[in-house]
Automatic annotation (TrEMBL), chain A:
Keyword set, alphabetical order: 2Fe-2S, Iron, Iron-sulfur, Metal-binding, Oxidoreductase
UniProt pathway: Alkaloid degradation; nicotine degradation
One Pfam family recorded for the sequence: Fer2_2
Annotated InterPro entries: 2Fe-2S-bd, 2Fe-2S-bd_dom_sf, 2Fe-2S_ferredoxin-like_sf, 2Fe-2S_ferredoxin-type, 2Fe2S_fd_BS, Aldehyde_Oxdr_Iron-Sulfur, Beta-grasp_dom_sf
Organism superkingdom: Bacteria
This protein's name: Xanthine dehydrogenase YagT iron-sulfur-binding subunit
GO molecular function terms listed in the Swiss-Prot or TrEMBL record: 2 iron, 2 sulfur cluster binding; metal ion binding; oxidoreductase activity, acting on the aldehyde or oxo group of donors
Domain 2Fe-2S ferredoxin-type span(s) in chain numbering: 3-79
From TrEMBL, chain B:
Record key words, sorted: Molybdenum, Oxidoreductase
InterPro entries: Ald_Oxase/Xan_DH_a/b, Ald_Oxase/Xan_DH_a/b_sf, Ald_Oxase/xanthine_DH-like, AldOxase/xan_DH_MoCoBD1, AldOxase/xan_DH_MoCoBD2, AldOxase/xan_DH_Mopterin-bd_sf
The keyword Oxidoreductase is annotated on this UniProt entry: yes
Domain Aldehyde oxidase/xanthine dehydrogenase a/b hammerhead: 24-131
SMART domains noted in UniProt: Ald_Xan_dh_C
Keyword Transcription included in the entry's annotation: no
Alphabetized SUPFAM superfamilies for the sequence: CO dehydrogenase molybdoprotein N-domain-like, Molybdenum cofactor-binding domain
A Pfam family of this chain: MoCoBD_2
Organism: Thermomonospora echinospora
Domain of life, per lineage: Bacteria
Entry-linked PANTHER family: ALDEHYDE OXIDASE 1-RELATED (PTHR11908:SF132), XANTHINE DEHYDROGENASE (PTHR11908)
GO terms for MF: iron ion binding; oxidoreductase activity
Protein name (database record): Xanthine dehydrogenase YagR molybdenum-binding subunit
Amino acid sequence: MDASIRLRVDGQWRTLDVDTRTTLLDALRERLGVTSPKKGCDHGQCGSCTVLLDGRRAVTCLALAVAHDGAEIVTAEGLADGEDLHPVQRAFLEQDGLQCGYCTPGQVCSAVGMLEEVKAGWPSQVTEDLAGPPELDDEEIRERMSGNLCRCGAYPNIVAAIRQGAR
Amino acid sequence: MTETIRARAMGRPLERLDGRDKVVGQAPYAYEQQVTDPLYLHPVQAVIARGRINAIDTADAESLPGVVTVLTHLNAPRLTGDGDGDDRELWVLQSDEVHFRGQFIGVVVAETSEIARHAADLVRVEYERWPHDVELSADRDDLYAPDKVNAGHDTDTDVGDVAAALADAPVVVDHTYRTPMEYNNPMEPHATVAVWDAGGLTMYDSTQGVHVVRQRLAPLFGLDPGHVRVVAPHVGGGFGSKGAPHAHNVLAGLAAQVTGGRPVKLAVTRQQMFSVVGHRTPTIQRIGLGAETDGRLTALVHEVVEHTSRIVEYAEQTAVVSRMMYAAPNRRTRHRLAALDVPVPFWMRAPGEAPGAFALEVAMDELAVACGLDPVELRIRNEPDVDPESGRPFSGRRMSECLREGARRFGWESRDPTPAARLRDGWLEGTGVAASVYPRIMQTGNRAWVRYGPDGRYEVGIGAVDIGTGTWTALTQIAADALEVPVEEVRLRIGDTDLPEAAVAGGSGGLSAWGSAVVGAARAFREKFGRHPSAGDEATGTAPESPAAEDFSMYSFGAQFAHVRVHADTGEIRVPRMLGVFTVGRVVNPRTARSQFVGAMTMGLSMALHEEAVLDPRFGHVVNHDLATYHIATHADVQDVDAIWLDEEDPRSNPMGIRGIGEIGIVGAAAAVANAVHHATGVRVRDLPITPDKLFH
Ligand code: FES
Ligand code: FES
């Protein structure tokens, strides 16, 4: 069964027909040609497909497109303003927070979403003081980013990039 | 010795030239290449480990709207050749036989991926089941010695009399070490987009070598290599598994022949990757060390039992590390294989060295304990003057320096060797060391061209690939130095068989092979056109000879240090710090090189603590065939991992003075962690991964 939906992707409204089984990830990549989010597992286990979905980080392989009619999606491509990179992206480049680059757009979106969560005061598993605002030390970054796998092992540089990008 | 090029761009920490495209996600990987009106493929896999297909019913699948066709062994186009040797892995849909569970036995071609996947489930198969066997053990009676092991090494070696030496040795360490079946799991799953038209076959492929894909596939499809084009501008990791085409490439090539020219897209799923793109064999390794009381080795035995698939022999060279690492007058290495009904094993980062060094370097730690010696000192004491088995001098061997420099930086001097003696806040602390090594591998047959463009830039072309190793950047730096121009004046072109022949990105030898060819091309260009060429001038060149290579034993070396904390009650293991010190020849780009070292050490950490594929002997499949259950290290597991290197160049190796860096970081890393766990807890774990249950007995 097909359904017609509208998505606002990186600032642009797009209308498309999707199979009701189509994931948001496949809708973006295969129907709209938006390939910035990557498919690493298709099972919500790697984070490569992370975007900002209605302002929050989400894995698009676990979302059905038809359930997100009218959604606002920002991919890593949309985080950059033309030639101007988002500070987190700039920091990834400077800190060499990538090797093959396949997990990278997901890491970037996840980092941007995560920084907002910290700003909003959300605690994590390793937050000691639940009363005050969480302090973004490396342990917090690592804990909060652990849904994003990187087989190239760029983790230390990614953490350094997020620290830099958060400033 | 070859004449080296002067380093101006080389040695500079240039940012990745492909980095901008990658942080926004615009760099196109294989499956993202835009093609017109594609069809989608979904493979059908065997659910038995051995047997024959009696009947295969595709009617329901084919009647599903949107399904174009279903190919099986009954109707698939025929491949050319006899399907022998290594081609048996690629002999897809050519017979009714099943050799391992998960083997491709059909493929659905459909308008969308959802339809293709649904239809694949509707294919009904009746099998004749034959008994299968996937269980490796050291006491099987069918173990055999292969003719050679991977990379052309001898299967066995013998020097002196190890039995006598072990019997006489005042100190003996003799144990069995095990490493499990492991999977490369690059983040980008293997994928290919194939177009078959009047011009032949075009494949956008996730591969470590465009030319190797062409070489292997062209004859199978009965095509002249000139009619097969393989394109791979960006590749999302490989770590060996993408070093050769696998069954999915053939499946896509077969399907592309029946679609009237429409492109077909095939993304191997993460789960399918556990059956069809290779894995590291499990290993059972005996290490026997005989030594004087001062730690000097008198005997070194390394005997390995591992598996291969019944259809294709792949013999991991696990014991070769013990042939050159330490001096000992009596030595023996053995490789024995069990041919099982398992998927075809293949390269995984540092094949041979990675599992082999785990066993050897843990055994050396045990010897240090047995002799009451510091493990750094023990290794230095056993440094050979020349390659112990070949007798050749080393082109450079600064392992002792790596060990000493690492010890200094890591704060090793203050270490109390007593195990299980540091309990702080419920955590047992320990530190460990291990040595690293990786051979310098020079692949031949590379060519490159240099063209002078109308824009005043030099275009440099070679069919190399960047799998995350930094090729786009480092090879540009080499080209700039070879041409003696700034990097801004070089425009590199890679990742396409339309470019000159290039070796696979493997054996830590990609940059050596490609860079040498680029130097050859630059020299040919300058000879012909001088320093002031005109637009359109072009020259092709090959790698200059390295005559010294014959006379020397060439390896990179390193030392790895790890600090671990083990929870005294739960056995949870944390690794607050790892440090690697390496000597690898010249480092072309310190920024990308450091990332590669750290990344490989991280994979070693992952090997030490997490990675283990579990084969179910009843069904012959890997039970934990996804990233939720086959664990790899994630952010929270990786804390302070750092790598440094000694300043050097190796002019005997090639005109850049480099030896290669991609794999050495994983070698010894797991042993350093294991040795640290022993220091922390007093428990010696000899089988990976070191999970908490193994600490309590
Ligand atoms: S592809 Fe979505 S989490 Fe892996
Ligand atoms: S950069 Fe390759 S997986 Fe993260």
